[in-house]
């Protein structure tokens, strides 16, 4: 990782800026298969389906049950029983997709970006129940909205509709997918 080091968002154990790419030593001996950079925090997915987060912890976007900043990657224990296949970091929230097609959201809940039917923040990953009966294949987090693709080819969206980003033609927030 490289760039601004505030809040530990580079994962090197300090707050220093990095002008060139530097290996994140916390992942030595592990196979990382995906990463996603959000607003002051990052997520990594290992080959075994574990999710790690680091950086700015405000509103619980790191998924560790608190709002503490993490200077180095830390495994999200609340997802330990799940085999995660995709992660995506938004501006103040995070989402994950499990191999069974379940979607989990945590962090800043404003504008309905977590998909739980309210605007509450979640300090730990919480399954999005609106996808019961659906098999989700892909997810992507935006600044304050998200998209999901289901096996039937449908695209679902939720969160902030500012500037029409959800494609529904109006500007209210969508609290559920």
Hey, roughly how much beta strand do the residues contain?
35-45%
**Rg, Cα atoms, Å:** 16 Å
Placed side by side, the strands forming the largest sheet appear as: 1-2-3-4
Order of helices and strands: EEEEEEEEEEE
Unreliable spans are none
Tell me the overall shape: globular
The largest sheet, given as strand count, sense and whether it forms a barrel, is:
4 strands, antiparallel
Q: DSSP helix count?
A: 0
What does this structure look like?
- The structure is a single chain.
- The chain has strands at residues 32-37, 41-46, 51-55, 70-75, 84-89, 93-98, 103-107, 122-127, 136-141, 145-150, 155-159.
- It is mainly beta.
Quick summary of this structure?
The chain contains no helices and 11 strands. It has strands at 32-37, 41-46, 51-55, 70-75, 84-89, 93-98, 103-107, 122-127, 136-141, 145-150, 155-159. The chain starts with 31 loop residues before the first strand and ends in an 18-residue tail after the last strand.
